[in-house]
Structures are given as C-alpha cells and as structure tokens.
Amino acid sequence: MTGRERGAVLAPEQEAFAPGEITPDQLPPDTTPVDPDLLETAEEGLERRHGDPRRVVVIGAGLAGLVAAFELKRQGHRVTVLEAQLRVGGRIYTLREPFAPGLYAEAGGMRIPRAHDLTLRYCELFGLPMRPFVMGNPRALVHLGGQRMTKAEADAEPGRLPFQLDDRERGRTADDLWESAIGHLRTMVARDGLAAWDHIVREYDQYSLYEFLRAQGWSNGAIEYFTVLNFLEADMHNSLVEILREDLGGAYVDMQEIAGGMDRLPNAFYAQLEDEVRFGANVFALDQDPDGVTVHFKTESGRFSERADQAVVSVPFSVLRTIEVVTPFSAAKQRAIRQLNYHASTKVLFQVRERIWEDEDGILGGGTVTELPIRRLNYPTPDPSTRRGVLLASYTWGQDALQWGAMDEETRLEEALDDVARIHPRIREVYEGGASHAWYSDRWARGAFAMFAPEQQTQLQADIVSPEGRIHFAGEHCSLYHAWIQGALESGIRAAQAIHEAPAS
Amino acid sequence: MASPIDLLGVLRDGLPGRATEPRHVVIVGAGIAGLTAGLLLTEAGHRVTILEARNRLGGRIYTYRGFAGRMYGEFGAMRFPRQHRLGQHLIHERFGLATTPFGMEDQDTLIHLGGRSVRRSDFTPESFDFALPPGERGRPPADILRDAMQPLIDLAAEPGGWERLIERYDRYSLLGFLLERGVSEPAISLLGPVFNLEGRLHFSLVEWFSHWHEDVFGDLEFIVDGADTLADAFAPALLRETRLGAEVQAIEQHPDGVVVHWRDGVGAMAAVQADECLVTVPFVLLRHMEIDGLDPDKWFTIRNVYYGRAHKIFMQFSRPWWAQDYGITHGVTVTDLAIRNVVYTPAGQDPDTGRGVIIASYAWEQDSMAYSMLDEGARIAQALQDLAKIHPQAASTFEFGVSHDWALDRHGGGIGPLFRPFEMTSSFYDDVVRPVGRVWFANDACDRRARRWIEGAIAAAVKNAYAIHAGMRDALPAAEEHA
Questions:
Q1: Considering CB atoms only, which of A5, A236, A441 is closest to B372?
Q2: Residue B2: which pLDDT band, with cuts at 50, 70 and 90?
Q3: Residue of B343, B340, B348 lying closest to B330 (CA atoms)
Q4: What average pLDDT does the segment B174-188 reach?
Q5: Cα–Cα distances in Å, from A1 out to A117, A309, A445, B150, B351?
Q6: How many CB pairs under 8 A join A and B?
Q7: pTM for the predicted model, two decimal places
Q8: What is the pLDDT of residues B85-121, one digit of tens each?
Q9: Under an 8 A CB cutoff, do B422 and A210 touch?
C-alpha cells in the first residue's frame, strides 16, 4: 500500500489563484479558531451553571494557568495555583533589573497583533494602556554581507543584496516571491475561512518551509533571501503550516505592546488571585484516582501535596516530561509529550545612555535584520522622557539561539557588542550594560515555545489537547497559536470551561 | 577530472613526495580532523600550528576519568565501526591501540514502555498494545521496517546506487518516507523505540538508511584504554606545535597568506601569520568567528549545517547489578521514560573495583532537552529516578553520577552534524566542503558517508591535507565515497 504522494499538491495553478487580491499589509479576515463565545469570556466569564464548586489545582502561573484560575474563581470554584518561581507570567517576563530606574525590557513575549482579539480583550478588561509596537519600519536597516542600507532601499533595489537569484527571481522582493508561492492560499483562507485551514493542513502538513520552497523550485539564493529577511532561516525545517498560520493569520500585522511592560497583564490576573497562588512550589509528581487528583510539590522548606477534584497542567510539555505521573497517561498522550518539538530562543539586551539610532538614522522603533549571529535588532518604542533606552541587541531562534545560550553572559554581551558595532559603530560609546535570557536553558521553560515539525499537527494535535481523566492541559502548546499569549489564554479558558462544565462525579 | 585519490593509501603512506615548498599551516581545532591533517602535513615537511580552545586534544573524543579505579566514561566518541577503514588504520596500524568488541545487541536488555519491561529475547509486537492495523499486526517489527525500505535497498544494490539514492530520496525525512510507504502511525510508534528512530524521524532518510543498511552498528569496537588515548597518540608529533586555550576569533585572508587571531582564557589577543588556514572545528562555531573572503553561499551552509543536541549521563554503582542480576553485559535498554536509552557500556569497566559504570541516559534532540537546563545535581537525580523504575537496584547501589550536554558545550556546538532533507545533494553539500582561497574546511560534517563519525573527520582531513600539499586552490581532490 502506498501512502500520500508528495509533491502532487504543489502546483499553484491547481488552485484558484488571483494574485494581488489581498496584500500582506491588509488586516486578514477573521480566520482565528477562537470561538465567539470564548471571546466573550473576558467580559462575561464562563457560562453560569449550578452545581457544587470544584476544587481545582493549577500547575504553573503563566498566562494559561492564570486565566484558567481566574475564570474558575469567577464561577465560584476553589482554586490553588502552584508556581515554582517567585513571580507570575512564565514566558511573559519583563526585566526591570539590572536596568536603570524606569527602564525595562522584555525577555519573553513583547507584542500583540491586532488579530489576537482574545488577548486584547483581556488587556481591555484590566484597563491596560496599549501603544503601537513598530514592526515594518522602512528606515530600519538591512545589514547583509557587510553592506548597510535601509529596509526601503533594500526593497527598492533587491539586486543590491548579496543573494544569487535565478533569472526569474531576480529583481523581485522576498515578499513578492513569497506571495507567488502562497498567494493562492491567502486567497483561499480569505474566501473559505476555517475550511481552508483544513485543506491547508491536509495538503501541506508534510512539508517543512525548506522542503516546500525547494519543491516550488526556488533557488537556494531565493530561499536564503526570504528566510534571512524574515528571520526564518533557523526555522526552515519546522512545519510550513506554522509559518502559514502566522502569516495568513496576521500574526505580525498592526502590533501593540502594553505601555509600562508586558508583565502588567499577568500581574493584573495575579491581583485577582493573590490568595490562590502559592509561589516557590515545584511540582514533582501528580496522580489521579477515581475520586480526585493529588499533586505533590516541594518548596525549599519541604514536601507537600495538594488534593483536588480536577487539575490544570499549564507547564510546557518539556517541563512535564520530568514530572512523575504516577498513574501513567495514555500512550498517545505520552507520545505527544515526548515528541512535540520545542524551539530555542535567546535575547540579548543593551542599556544605552543615548538612543543613537534615533538621531543618527531616524529609526523610531522597528527592527534591523542581519545575517550576523545577532540576527536582528529591535529598537525600543521612543520615550521622550529619557535619552536612555534598552535595545534588543539580538533575538535568535533555533540553532542560533543555542549558540548564544552556550555562552556565559559576559561573552554573550561582548559578542553581541561586536556585531551591533558593525551596524551602529557608536554603540560602544553609549553602551552602559546588558542582560540576556536563553529560554532553552531556563529550567522552568525548557525551550521558548512549541513549534511543530512536519507532520506533527496531523499526528499529535488531538493528543496534545485532550484531557487525561481529571487532568486538563493548557499553555501555548495546547493551542494552534504556538508562541503567542493568545494560545495560552485560549487553551487556559478551554481547560477552565471543561472543568466548569464537567458533570459532578 | 583527475582520478580519485586513495584516502587510505595517503593516510598509510603519507602525502606523496616531500614538500618542495614547505608551507606554514594554521590548524583551528585539535580534534581528530585537526590532528590527522597536522600529522600528515608535518610528516610531509610542512610546518603546522594548531590552535585549540580547550585545554586538551580530542575535541568530541572526550573521556571522563573521575570514576573509581580505572573506570572511565566516554562523553563523546565511544565505539568505532570495523568497516571504517581510515579509523581502523589509525587505531591499529598507526598507533597500535588495543581494542575489544563494543556489542550493541544483548538479548537480555529490556524494552520498557508504559511502565512495563520486557526482555528483548521475549519481545514480540504483542508485548505492548500498539494497536497495529490488520496488515501489520503480528509481523516482526524488523520486517515492517525492511518492507518500507525495500525500494532503497533495491536501488542501493544497483551500480551507482549511492548517487541515485541521494538524487531520488534526498528530499525525504525518515518520517515522511515511512508515511508515504503506508506504514501506520501505530507501527511508527512501535518502530520508534525498538529501532531508536524517534530522534531521527525529522532528519534525512538517506543518511539514516545508509547507516542502517550498511549495518554500521553491527560490528563495533572500543579502545581498551579509552578513546582519548587515540587523540593523545598524536601528542608526541603535535603537542609541541599546539597552543591550548587559544580561541580563534578571526581569520584574515591576504593574497599571500593568512593571519589568524586568537584570544586566550583571560581575553588577551594574539595573532599568527601563515600560508594557509585549515578550519576543523564544527561549522556552527564559525558563526562567531570573522573569516575574510567567504562568499554568501559558503556562509549559507555554515549557518545551516545542523548540529544535534544530545547528552550522556554516566553513573557509577557499588556493584554491576546489570551483569549480576540480569546477565546484561552490553547493549542498550530502550524506554519511553525521559532517560530514553540506557547503555551498558562494555568500555570503561574496571572489575578490580567490584563496581561498574553505565550510561544511565543517552538521548538526542527533543529528548535531550528535558535535561539541558537542569543543574548537574538535578539531572543525575532525575535520571536515577527513571533508571530505578527499570532497575530498582540502581537506587540503593548508586555512588556517583556525571553528565555532559553537548548542546551546551560551547566548543562542541552540539554532538555532531545531522543531514536534514535536501542537504545531501550537491547543490547544498558542495558548498559545505568547498575551500575558499587560503581557508580550508575539514571536520566530521565534511563527509556524506560517515558524517558524525571520526571516519568522516579523518577522510576530510586527508583530502584537505592532500590539496594543501599539492598546491591546489579552491578545490579538493576527488576521492571515492565509501563507508
């Protein structure tokens, strides 16, 4: 018996394709799988129902755990949140130390796209002030092969970039090439919404981005051009569908940040859950029996356990992997936990006494791209109250991030300074100090976020999200918004909903 | 094209002829590739300077000797296939090191899944509930795998089979191919742990296939006194020419030579001028070096050669219970627990101590991640907890544990290069091995047939040493690709 034919689905002419119908700058239609009723949860809470309040233990006080606890408490359930660290937020991590008073930077999640409605609803619920997060700044730089130019110049004259393109590719921008390859899918999603995604997953889940582009006949130069400019080079061997989902879902369109720091969102949840959160609680085992769930944890002062009717496990699968599950999960769940691919990410941050890029290059926010090891710079949102600022001097994924992660902090800062100085030669004059965070080596994260390898959505997704008896799962990895707050919130609400609606035992 | 050179002949007999114009060659890295090239060039009358960031020779040949008595643990290379002729030549003929078989199959080892252990000798697909569909139910797992691979087996048997395998199948990951062949997901769940495929599913089909088909793991040996004795065997010839603790920062290329800049452990910079520079460290480390004159395609491959993440956790026990209680003398127990693979290494034992040492966990990629961020104490404790679920004796006999995580080893850059789909074809691969001006590249990524093995590193070293000696420029000699 032969399985699927590879390559058969790739000819774009097979699909109705009207090039240029939708441009990448337009806000995409609402293609998100967030149900409308889920969206209302932020304002209205879960649907009211009668029944005894449940005792629920939530493992992890990242946004998934927090929203689950918050919504369950709103419905009168008795919640305990066990968090190993002494802060909430998980991979939302605003660094205020070691920076000068008033300065901060985001080691983790830093931006929210307009399309992530559920996230924005919770920001609104807590009255958090939002401001634009600049993405595509034409004055930001492209620094490749030792050449420095603005993004606008690079787009106007792609021939200046050091990539060896085929005749039919030459003179076109990376975005233009990409639209030729996937424009028909953009059209299909605009036309058919969720049904289009079923088709896309069925036909394309077998491909990595690299396999897809190669099968489309792209030259290596074009692949390099597109992936370097879009920070995808370290991502090329992950699932194509992940990249499509972000692009066609508008994950980088019209972005915002929370003024004052992204940690204001988890902290706002925490303000409603102060009595429910137990910090410094490192869960090492969990068990369930017909009557309930037992969660064993240790603190620096001893071992304890918490008994409940239901549990929400909101820690990453990479962390769950080393928590003892006394009554084993189903084989399918175990396989999902073992195999789900996690991506590495490292950020290096510089405090500068003067934001030289603003005066010298007129760059007000946005990002610079380079093939140097730092890969990209993100300029902070201009703040007229101070000349200082914190520059995201390097933001890397995958193998790039592992290399940075393997260095000690001093070496990271020194190496990043070398790279930044090639792009902004005066950086050493204004540099005051720095910080960095490698999520791969973060004991409580063990990777930056879930990122499907080819075939994994088809093979694993159902098993990733399904509950095991009284134990429910949440976190960005339990959604199709990998790496995004939206996924954490969506999965957390779903877990809360399942517990809230479960029949009394 | 000139006729292919005989790599074994060159390694055995030396580079042809004495250097008429002796060159000064800086070699970056004192792993097996750097050492082999250094030896050949020195013996042919050239001058070499080896710069090595670590304080030892060997690179990813790394023997840990902190156990009781004469016991040791191989964090890096530990087993050497007898079919690897270049490695065999160095080990036996050149250096006369004593070896013993490193068996991989021991029917007394276990398959431990879902909390239950079954001896390999008792294992059948019915031992665990894999819910195989009717067509696969009852069939030996090895047959399912062989049937899936039949087209490749047939092609490999044809003349020019190797080239045609790459041409035809390079675009496949192992997983993609198994699915296309109609192997069911439950069967893949079965094959994964039994044949240790899970860490390879998303990597190159052809690379995995060639190792499996040629049975690279079928006839292995280890160096009795430890793999580091192979690296140390080069010391008399080369240690004097080696600067340890020298981390290379930049390589300048000029029309008439190179300048290699390095930094010592306290940050002081120094430079050495030479005629040529042979880079033997993993490509992933070159990201953080400045190298003049490399073209964009070369940088593209440097950035994109993928290095696997992996760790080994060794443990010393007060008695060798695996032999005493289970009759296990070698081989591997596989499990779905986080430790994944337990290797009862025949290497590094010292019966006089009454004790024994095993690899409690050897895991790759995603599986390695579960341990990477733990501190050493927590790593050992968690691995021991898992091991005791399979072997309860482990808990009460544990004495000492030590681990090495190659993903976090700054000078290793990972355990070794892995091909991903599309990377074995010439359009990608030629750029991997291609020298650029006076900068040459020889490491274990620079060989298609024996990547990640010392064999691949040695082969690349011989080719590059030959080319430098012969005065070639921007080219390497042709050599047959053989296992």
A1: A441
A2: low
A3: B343
A4: 94
A5: 45, 47, 42, 13, 53
A6: 136
A7: 0.89
A8: 999 999 999 999 999 999 988 999 999 998 899 999 9
A9: yes
